[in-house]
Amino acid sequence: MAVLSLTRAEAEERARLLTIQRYDVAVDLTDLPTGTRVVCTSTIAFSCHEPGATTFADCVAEIESATLNGVALPGAVDGRIVLSGLAADNVLEVTTVIADSTAAQGVRKAVDPADGRVYFWTDLPPDVTRYVWACFDQPDLKAPHAFTVTAPAEWLVLTNSGDPAVESAGEARRWTFPPTPPLSTYNLVINAGPYYELRREGAGHDLGLFARQSLAPILDRDAEELFTLTTQGHEFFAEVFGMPFPQRKYDQVFAPEFAGAMENYGCITWMDWFLRRSTPTKAEWDLFSRYLLHELAHQWFGNIVTMRWWDDLWLNEAFAEFASNWAAVRVTSYSDAWAAHLAGEKLKAYLVDQGPTTHPIRQPVNDVAEGAATFDAITYPKGASVLQQLMTYVGETAFSQGLTKYFAEHAWSNATLEDLITAIAGETDRDLTRWSAGWLDEAGTDRLTLEQDDDAWTLVAEGPNGEPRPQVLAVGVYQRGPGALERIALVEVEVTGRRTPLELPAGADLYLVNDEDLTFASTRPDANTRDGFFEDAAGLPTPLSRAVAVATAWDMLITGEATAGEAVRCLTGVVTVETSESLIEPHLNRAVDVALLWSPESVRDELAAEVAASCRALAANPRLRKVALRGFARTAADLDSVAWLQSEAGDDVDLQWRALIRKAQLKADTTAEVRALLARDQDPEAWVSELTVRAAIPEHDEKQAVWERLVTEQDVPLGSLHQVTAAFWSPGQDELLKPFVAKFLELVPEISTWGQMAATTYTRTLIPVFGVGEGFAEKIQALAADAEPVVRANLLEKTDLLTRMLRARA
After folding, report:
1. Where are the transmembrane segments (predicted)?
2. Are residues 237 and 350 in the same domain?
C-alpha cells in the first residue's frame, strides 16, 4: 500500500475544520508472551466546524473494523480513512491489528536473551502513530488521551498518565489510565512488561525508574545519580520556566531494543544501552546527564507547548538541547556541560553547517517526511548554541522572564517561533528582528578572524552570504606565565558589521577568538600566532578555553587549513593537561579518530603511536585509567602492547573485549580468548561484543558473515550498531573492504524501506570509511537523489565527511 505523508496545506485545512475532544485507546497485549499480535481500538470524539464536510483520519495499520457515527467505513487508501458527511459532533472508532509486533513500525515486542522475558514498547515520532492506531496525526490537533491496556497478569503497564485502575480480566489484567492533558499524537507511549521498578520522591514528584529484570543490578548501581539528576532538573526548570511540571508521576523506562530516547509526556523511554554494562566514566555520565535533562526539558518545550507545524521542530529540539546544558551547569555536578557540548555535539554541527546538507535552522517543511529529515546537527547542537547566543545577547534574566511569559500564555496549546521571540523581546530593549532573521533563516557558519596592523587590532567577521550575523562574543588575551598561559584580558565584542576595531593588549602570546564559547562561529588565530597555536592550546588555563582552541584546530582540519598531525598534537597536548574528566574522553576519542581516520597512511602509525603514548601516560592516573586504556585499545601498535593492555584491564570485561578487537585487527587468532570471555561476560548482549571482534578480523569470510548479521538478519540492536561497524571498516584493510563498499551501494535503495529509525541509524553507521575509490561520492549522490529525505540527508552528510577525510589523507 502506498502511504502519503501529510502536507502542511492538508494539516492547516484539517486544523481549521476539526477540534478533537478526546481519544480513548484500548490496546490488547495478551497475545505477546507466545505470539506477536497486538490489537488497538481507537475511539476519537471530535467536532466539525462545517457539518457536511469531508476530511480524513490517518491509519496505516491493518484495519479490522471502522465506523463513523456508527456507520461502517471502507478501509484506508494510501494510509487515509476518508470521513465524509461529517456531523457537528462525531465519533470515529477504528480497530487495528498489528500481526507481527517484532518487525512493525511504532511498536516492538522484545525478548530479553538473558531470561526469555518479553517486553513491549511503542515509539511514535512524527508520522508513526498512524502505523499503530487511527488518529489525526499532526501536532496542532492536541487532545486528551485515555488508555486502557489489557496485558499479561505479571506485567506492569506504563503510559503518559499515572495512577491507573487495575482489575482482573480473565488470566490477564486490565489497566485503565486517567486521561492525559491535551497532547499531540507524537507525545504518547505505552511501555509494558515484567519490569524491575524503583521509585523515589523528588521535587514534589513521584519519580520512577524501570529496566528489564536482567539489568536490575545495573539500575540499582545508577539509580541514585538518575534520581538526583531528575530532581535537580525538575527544580531548575520549574524556576526558570515559571511553571512546575504539572503531573505528579514522572517515569523513565530503559527498554530493550529501543533506539535513542523519546520525550513522551510523563514517561520517557530510553534504549537500555544507556545503562552502561561497564561502570560509566565521568564523560559518559556527563553526556547522559544532558540527555536526561534534554528529555525532561521537552515536557515544557514540545509537550506542554507544542509547535504548530514541523518547520518549528528545531525549536523543540534546540531548546531542549540548550536547556539541558543550562541546567547541567547551573544545578548539577556536571558544571563543564557547555565545554563538553562544544567538544562533542557542537563540533559535529560546525562540520555539517559547512557541508552540502546545511540548511537554515528554521526552514519551510512541506510535509512530515521532510520534517523527519531535519533531526540533525543543525537542529540540535547548532540550534542550542544559537539559543545560548540569544541568552547572551539579551541577558539571562530577560531570557528567563520571556520564557515564563511564553509558557503562561501558550500552555497546552500550539505556538510558533514568533510567539517565543515576541515573549523574549518584550523583556529587552534589543531589536530581535534582525537577530532572528540572521540566525534562524540563514544557513552556514560565520567566520571570525583577528587581523593586526602594527598595534591596531580588527575582528573580521564574514557571514555565509557576506554580512555577519549580529552577535556578542569575547576575545581572550593570554600571556605566558611561569607554568602556563594566563589570561590578562577578556574583551567583549559586539559584531554589527564586517570589521570591528578592538583594543587588545599588544605582544601577548595567544589571542583566543570566541573565548568562553558564547557564539556559533568558525574562528581562526591571527597569522602571527598561527603556527604555535596548536601546541599553545595546552597552556590555556580552563577546560572551556582549551575546548575553544580544540574547536579551532578541528575546524581548520575539516576545511583543509591544518594537517592531521597538527590536530593530533593539539589534542594530545590538551589531553595531557586537561583537568575536566568530562572533556578528557571526548578529546581523546577525537585524537584517536584523527590519527586513524584523517591521517595519510604514511604517518598513520606515527600519529597513532603519539596518541597511544598519551594514553599510556594517562593510565597512571587511577581516575583516568579506564578512559586512557580505552584509547590505547584502539591505537596499540603490536601484540606486545595488547598483552600489556590485557594485563592492565584485569577483571574489566569491557576493556578485555576492546583488547580482543585490537588483537583481531593485528591478525592474531582470538578464537579461544573470545570463547572464554563470552563465558565470563554477564551482559545479555555479550554476543554483540563477540560479533565486533569478528568484524575486526581481516579475512573475507569473517567480513561476509558479519555483513550477513548486520544487513540480512538485522539482529544487532541499533544502539550497538556503531561499535560493530566501526570495527568492520577498520583502517589498513582497504583491499579487503572494497567488495563491501559495492555491497553498500547496492543496499542504499533498500534502506529507505526499513523504517525511520533503522534507516537513519544504518545510513549513519554502515557507510564505508575505508576501501572507497574514485567516484564513490558521485555514486552516493546519485543514489541519494532517489532516497527518502532522512536517508538522503544522512548519505550526503556522511559522504561529505568522508570526502574531507580523504582530502586530509591525501
Report:
1. none
2. yes
| Domain endpoint, select from 411, 443, 460 | 411
Does residue 700 have a pLDDT over 70?
A: yes
What distance in Å separates the CA atoms of residue 197 and residue 191, rounded to the nearest whole number?
A: 13
Residues 6 or more apart in contact with residue 59 via CB below 8 angstroms: 66, 76, 79, 80, 81, 94, 96, 130, 133, 134, 135
Domain boundary among 375, 393, 411: 411
Is residue 2 pLDDT above 80, yes or no? no
The 8 Å CB, 24+ separation contacts for 528-533 are 528/452, 533/570
CATH number at residue 138: 2.60.40.1730
User: What cell was used for 786?
Assistant: 532517489
Q: 755-759: long-range contacts at Cβ-Cβ below 8 A with a sequence spacing of 24 or more?
A: 755/105, 756/105, 756/125, 756/127, 756/128, 756/372, 756/790, 757/123, 757/125, 757/259, 757/260, 757/718, 758/259, 758/714, 758/718, 759/788, 759/790, 759/791, 759/794
**pTM for this model (two decimals):** 0.93
* C-alpha to C-alpha distance for 646 and 657, rounded to whole angstroms: 9
- Is 131 found in the same domain as 199? no
**For 565-571, which contacts have Cβ atoms below 8 Å and span 24 or more sequence positions?**
565/599, 565/603, 565/607, 566/534, 567/534, 567/591, 567/594, 567/598, 568/594, 568/595, 568/599, 568/607, 568/610, 568/611, 569/534, 569/535, 569/610, 570/533, 570/534, 570/535, 570/537, 570/538
Structural contact between residues 44 and 134, judged by C-beta atoms closer than 8 angstroms:
yes
Residue with cell 558473515: 705
Strands 471-480 and 485-495: antiparallel
Please count the residues of the chain: 810
406 to 401, 425, 578, 669: CA distances (angstroms): 9, 11, 40, 62
Nearest to 292 by CA among 239, 236, 348: 236
| Residue position matching grid coordinates 592516573 | 621
Q: 199 and 180, same structural domain?
A: no
**Which cell numbers hold the place of 677?**
570471555
Residues 52 and 124 in one domain: yes
Instruction: Give the C-alpha separation, 395 to 430, whole Å.
Output: 10
- Please check whether residue 571 is in contact with residue 578, taking contact to mean a CB–CB distance below 8 angstroms: no
- Which of 281, 312, 242, 305 shows the shortest CA–CA distance to 583? 281
Instruction: Say if residue 343 is in the same domain as residue 406.
Output: yes
Are 95 and 223 in the same domain? Answer: no
Predicted confidence (pLDDT) per residue in 360-412, tens digit: 998 889 999 888 777 788 989 999 999 999 999 999 999 999 999 999 999 99
**Which three cell numbers mark 533?**
597555536
- CB 420, CB 361: distance < 8 Å: no
Does residue 371 sit within a domain?
Answer: yes
Is 545 part of any domain?
A: no
Summarize pLDDT for 81-123 with one digit per residue, the tens: 999 999 999 999 999 999 999 999 999 999 998 899 999 999 9
CA distance 449 to 314: 29
Average pLDDT over residues 716-731: 94
Domain count, the chain: 2
**Claim to verify: residue 333 and residue 255 sit in the same structural domain:** yes
Which 3-state string (H, E, C) describes 397-452? Answer: HHHHHHHHHHHHHHCCEEECHHHHHHHHHCCCCCCHHHHHHHHHCCCCCEEEEEEE
Domain assignment of residue 296, yes or no: yes
Quick check: 688 pLDDT over 80?
Answer: yes
Within 8 A by CB and 6+ apart from 380, the residues are 317, 318, 321, 345, 349
Query: Is residue 169 situated within a structural domain?
Result: yes
Tally of CB atoms within 10 A around 291? 18
Q: Classify residue 673 as exposed, middle or buried by CB count within 10 Å of its CB (0-12, 13-18, 19+).
A: middle
Q: What CATH number does residue 267 fall under?
A: 1.10.390.10
Range of the domain at 55: 1-184
Same domain? 104 vs 248: no
Number of DSSP helices (H) and strands (E) in the chain, helices first: 27, 28
